[in-house]
């Protein structure tokens, strides 16, 4: 299920079907613009987007897909409801990797498109224990960066080289804040095209939605 977007999706973007290396059935949820979905838990509830996503996930299940995922990690807030709507696996977000990762590591880094909006409710919805919330180190890209403004502004153009630099700079900022982190989860499904650049810059293991979907 992809948001209603027009911004460029370079190879590796989870919203680009060719990135998956397997057959993909794409369903665009009309009206689910990035500015509506990348929001606080309260704002997402107020936007009343759940019915459209329930309809979408049921439609995909009826067409025989093996699993359903989304193109925005913030949709983890809908994980419980969407999984309850169908009998096939639903993976709304890479954040669902966090509980398992925290079993073996003291802290995990999360790189997000919006640090201001990604809150404890998102982590709790992903299954992170309340006692471990402090062990998840969240870092956002610069809100004024090319990456953030192109995606959240749903622009038709994006300077991919600048976007790559924006994501790497955010990862390095997280490393400076939390030098003990060894694993980074990319919340944003538009970040995987730059995952290798982040690995090269930080030396970290870098995971994304591709690692969460069965």
TrEMBL record:
It comes from the Bacteria. Pfam families: Asp_Glu_race (PF01177). GO terms for molecular function: amino-acid racemase activity. InterPro entries: Asp/Glu/hydantoin_racemase (IPR015942), Iso_Racemase_Enz_sf (IPR053714). Gene3D superfamilies: 3.40.50.12500. Belongs to the HyuE racemase family. This is Aspartate/glutamate racemase family protein.
